[in-house]
Amino acid sequence: MAAILCNPADTRVLAKTGQAADAKSAPEIDPDAMDALNKMGTYLRSLKAFQVDSESTNDDVLDDGEIITDTRSSTLLAVAPNLLRAELKGDDRNTFLFYDGKNFTVYGKLLNYYATVPAPPTTRELVDKVDSEYGIEIPLVDLFKWGTDESAVKKITSAIDVGPSSVQGITCEHYAFRQEGIDWQIWIQLGDFPLPKKFVIRTLTDDARPQHTSTLTWNLAPSYNEAAFTFDPPLGAERIPLKDLNADTTKNAQ
Questions:
Q1: Cβ neighbours of 195 (radius 10 Å)
Q2: The predicted structure's pLDDT at residue 179
Q3: Which InterPro entries match (predicted)?
Q4: Is CATH 2.50.20.10 what the domain over 26-243 is classified as, yes or no?
């Protein structure tokens, strides 16, 4: 301990420790942290088009409690109010999502299968529909909910401003939040572009406390054409039905 205290190069350790101590003594809900979330949400809702690349790690808990961490990446291109294209890559998948305001398509490149269903007229409606009906979660789905009545802001029970931090060489403010069942942290870029740059989400309802981490790279002036959002089946692709998770429930209720 004495070596750390005497080493000028490690003053950052003391500074971070001081921030943590301040955080512990802070009010249960720091209004500055909540204001930062609201400001970020308002800014995200003002964006007409964006592309965001995500590098993520995700903890999978085995039956014996051991954690296996896998690495994933995604690229999301969105144009308000109703165009979206996403690519998701991982060790065991390479999936594309297409939404042109009329139809939603899932394409699994590894198997060369795809499914297309009619879609609602806005991206906000789409993310809820495909999740509730088909169990498909659009990557970085919260980007479409912050700044709306559907955001998780009202569920927050603890909010802390941890302090300044750097993500990918960009100065951010680091915040920590708690709501029922999860702890989550977010790093928001400082300045005129309050973009989320990093997330850490920890599940509290599992004894293993699995964690998900995402680091985001933004492009606020992406180049695109509308054809990019409409799926054109490649040679040999097979169309399959997309199972409605609620179909059996509805049938049984009749």
A1: 21
A2: 95
A3: DUF2092, LolA/LolB/LppX
A4: yes
